[in-house]
Amino acid sequence: MLEMRPDCERCGADLPADEGGAxxxxxxxTFCADCTDALDERCPNCGGELLDRPARVGKALANNPASTxxxxxx
Length: 74
What we know:
Blueprint lengths: L21 E3 L5 E3 H6 L12 E2 L5 H6 L11
Antiparallel strand pairs: 1-2, 1-3
C-alpha cells in the first residue's frame, strides 16, 4: 500500500492524499507537479520515472490514512 506522503520532497508543498497533483517514483519519492516538471519527470534520488500518484478518498482514506511524516528537508 502506498504511504501517500504529505509533501513535496523538493519544495515542501502540501500534497493531500485525497487530491491530485502529486507524482511518485517506484520508491514513493514524492514531488509536486511544478517540481516534477523542473526535474524533467525523473526522480533525483533514484533516476526513476515520476508518474501521477493516485488519490485516496472516502472510506479508503479513512481506513488507511496517509503518512504524516514530512520528507522536505528545506
